[in-house]
Amino acid sequence: MRYVDEFRDPSLIRQAAAEVRRLAHPDRHYRIMEVCGGHTHAIYRFALEELLPSNIELIHGPGCPVCVLPMGRIDDALAVAEREGAILTAFGDVMRVPGRGGTPLAHRARGADVRMVYSPLDALKLAESERDRHVIFFAIGFETTAPSTALTVQRARAREVGNFSVFANHVTIIPAIRAILDSPDMRLDGFIGPGHVSTVIGCRPYGFVADDHRKPIVVSGFEPLDVLQSIVMILRQLGDGRSAVENQYGRAVPWDGNAAALRAMADVFELRPYFEWRGLGFISQSALRIRADYARWDTERRFDIAGVRVTDPMAAQCGEVLKGVLKPHQCKLFGTECTPERPVGALMVSSEGACAAYHTYAIRRTRAGVR
Ligand code: SF4
Question: Rounded to two decimals, what is the model's pTM?
Fold first, then answer.
């Protein structure tokens, strides 16, 4: 398959891994963060850490939107879903995220009308076919999914679908990277930049990473060769004493992003003054809310949202894993009380969550006797 097979070619992968070993200075320890959960998934799936020398440490970043969602947002959405005539719609992974009162799936089992959809347009179509009900779409994701939500809201207005609204939980990646760089306990040498988000925002917004913080950042694809090439590019910059934004994923990421997607987002959304991220706390201007022009399609303006705040269970160490301080298997609940079948934290829910990816692939390899 074009753009897949050549990026999984074993001989090219071996060459890239050899180049990583050649470039990594034996007296230095490198801490490189992969910002995006898609990269975390690829790293575990293809056992890429096994190909790296021991002095290269990959730190999992906050780029899994389900993982950074605070529990209270689930409870807020479920409270709206319990209203007479309401239908709550959400993507499949959100259905399994625990709130204080259980997951959306558990609420459905208790009688609430909670339905899984594959896109916001599915939710809008449902609203058009159920005119006497109010359909709420639980919108989640970075700039990758925000444009499709924005286009759906525009379409709802164009078609005058008044029984549809969006509970917006979209977050933006740049403030999160900034918060990580400003964190005193975060020592990083470089970043594997997010690929999906960058198809929308492009590469320019990462300039501050290289210019102000003097760290290399390489926007990367998701195949094994992509990730290894990105590490090579980071090591080359470090070896040369440079810091720049580079684009390894040129086949999908335009340097200036996707103008049409950015226009739709700017029309429908504005930045919230602040938003809570699980594990990272409140980050200013890090999330999107629906503009007043589209108030009719904003769940938070149409309904009284409590703004529930819920702390994680005491033993759960999701925050430390999200900040890269702990590896997934170092959490006290990993693999015992917290598993993909019975997740305690959201990192065990989404396939992009570090705990779910580690559990799925590392344990499978261990059982198969593969190092
Ligand atoms: S194992 Fe579960 S509780 Fe522990 S960090 Fe991962 S998701 Fe959170």
Answer: 0.91
Element (H, E) at 276: strand 274-277
125-131's contacts with Cβ under 8 Å and 24+ in sequence apart are 126/87, 126/89, 127/156, 127/161, 127/163, 127/164, 128/159, 128/161, 128/164, 130/87, 130/163, 131/163
Furthest C-alpha separation in the chain:
68
In short, whether 355's Cβ falls inside 6 Å of ligand 1 is: yes
**Which residue puts its alpha carbon closest to atom 3 of ligand 1?**
316
Which residue's CA is the closest to the ligand 1 atom numbered 1? 334
**pLDDT mean for each 10 residues of the chain (371 residues):** 81 96 96 93 91 94 88 93 94 91 92 96 98 97 97 98 97 92 85 97 98 97 96 98 97 97 98 89 94 97 84 82 84 92 85 88 68 50
Whether the CB of 344 sits within 6 Å of ligand 1: yes
Pocket mutation for ligand 1, best pick of 318, 330, 341, 359 (most atoms within 8 Å of C-beta)? 318
Q: Which phi and psi (to 5°) does residue 189 adopt?
A: -100, -20
- Interhelix angle 224-240/37-45, rounded to 10 degrees, is 110
- Ligand 1 atom with least separation from CA of 335: 1
Instruction: Tell me the per-residue pLDDT of 187-199, one tens digit each, with 9 for 90 and over.
Output: 899 999 999 999 9
DSSP character at residue 132: T
348 Cβ closer than 6 Å to some ligand 1 atom: yes
90-123 b/e (C-beta count within 10 Å ≥ 16 → b)? bbebbbbbbbebebbbbbbeeebbbbebeebbbb
- The domains of the chain, with CATH numbers, are 6-61+174-247 (3.40.50.11750)
- Residue 190 dihedral angles phi and psi, to the nearest 5°: -175, 175
Substitution candidate for ligand 1 out of 71, 97, 331, 358 with most atoms within 8 A of CB: 331
